[in-house]
Write a structure and sequence with these properties.
The chain is an alpha+beta fold and about 140 residues long. Helices cover about 40% and strands about 25% of the residues. A 6-stranded antiparallel beta sheet has the order 1-2-6-5-4-3.
Length: about 140
């Protein structure tokens, strides 16, 4: 009877493992960063200062933003004539127009917020997990 119990447990773990693998294959990675890395073409020549990792797409910024936000809902989003700015808990995804489509920049929030503050200003609110804090008196440093 104990062999049967171990067999059932083993089969259950195998089924769970197969489901997780299938989900990863059919639905991409488990983060916005992984989604962009899997879906778009790497463009190392467009990286910014070793902090923002660049990818490209032949689609417009609004089309790329729709693809990314359909897969991963951002905590905040800001759109203007310069591009689409998506904030997640730890990462930003900034989508800017280029002549042949879009450049998609992945960057940690700790460097993205100072870089894009003049554009996003207070539009990027802060949720749980944010590592960037203000610098005034009483800011909780």
């Amino acid at each position: 009877m104990t062999y049967r119990r171990w067999f059932v447990v083993g089969v259950a773990f195998a089924v769970i493992g197969a489901l997780v693998a299938a989900f990863a294959i059919f639905y991409g990675s488990f983060s916005p960063r992984g989604y962009v890395e899997d879906k778009y073409k790497r463009a190392a020549s467009r990286d910014i200062a070793g902090a923002a990792v660049a990818y490209t797409s032949t689609r417009s910024p609004s089309q790329v933003a729709k693809e990314v936000t359909d897969a991963w809902q951002p905590a905040d989003q800001y759109v203007d004539g310069s591009g689409v700015y998506l904030r997640y808990d730890d990462d930003s995804v900034v989508i800017l127009p280029i002549a042949a489509g879009s450049v998609i920049l992945l960057e940690r929030m700790s460097t993205a917020y100072p870089r894009y503050h003049s554009t996003v200003g207070s539009h990027w609110g802060w949720g749980r997990g944010s590592t960037v804090r203000g610098g005034g008196p009483g800011s909780g440093k």
